[in-house]
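Trying the structure run again after the queue cleared.
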Amino acid sequence: MTALALCVACSPAPAAAPAAPAASASPATPATPVVPGTPVIPGTPASTSAPHGSASGTAAPSAPTSPTAGPDLTIAFGGDVHFAGQLAARLRKPASALSELRPYLASADVAMVNLETALTGRGAPAPKSFHFRAPATALDALDAAGVDVVTMANNHAVDYGAKGFADTLAARATSPVPVVGIGTDGRDALRAAVLHVRGRRVAVLAATQVPEWTAATWPAGPKRRGVAVALRPARLAAAVRKVRRSADVVVVYLHWGTDYTGCPNALQRGTARVLADAGADVVVGTHAHQVQGAGWLGRAYVGYGLGNFVWWRRNNEVESRSGVLTLTLRGRRVVRERWTPMRVSVDGIPRVPAGSEAERLHRAWQRSRACTGLSATPR
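Done. Tokens:
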């Protein structure tokens, strides 16, 4: 299989030569052999052991380092993940369940996805159309794939009611990677995971803006467990401002947007502006089941929709489009974006298509920016 990664806002490599690496400027960890048949992105380190940061549940109390200090930092984002249907059997072997995706995720300094499922084998289905659940080993599978932070702020985290959510919180407590966006109360659900990587503190927060049963029934609040909900983004913006004081980079991952649409809605656009003004450096999200546009909003970078990632259904060609968004930050600012186009296969795993198809999908991703009001280059 031919793998392809195309870079926007960076100089293209000559057609006859491999693309220039989009990794950080500091010396990379020595490459490790890649398992035969594993897709490798040209221009991305073959190593799956890039230096990942240690994480904590709260921001470090000391003052942040200079926003221009340190080497370039890379952050990779995938979209919605669950282990429903044909994907469930993969969790019999969590260590290899998503091994195909490790080269795309672990080669970044930080990688993040949305886990859209309750982590339980108990509970009654919620009064809604779709229900997703998986064992807690789903978190082990993501860890093995190179994911460093998981958000569960979405409309499926409480699909199996109080008993199911109790199990989900228990799974979070023993997770090998930080889980954000859910908690024992509102403060806990909005608490940032802080990763220490390349001498910097990267703070990651998450919330949902999907106005359905979960947000209405299970919003985390004072003395109330649940999901971080940001239908009105003021509390989320306040959390951004608070963590901004001690973090070098602030990332917000949102579950937002209108199902089956390729453009951001008014709430998405307004929220992105509020969070950028509050000090967020990167704002990304999922939920619409389609890839939506991305680009720069002043100094901040916004990715409105990453699409389905590890997903059980492909309703049509547009909904099968997927990818990994890899951002390079210099200080606080995103200086380079790279979209690795993929397509969700019939087995639920996203893969880079061969040759011209990957190029076509990348052009479609570039065109999706047209309805966002975002810039194609850093400002």
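The two ends are 37 Å apart (CA to CA). Worth checking whether this holds up in the mutant runs.
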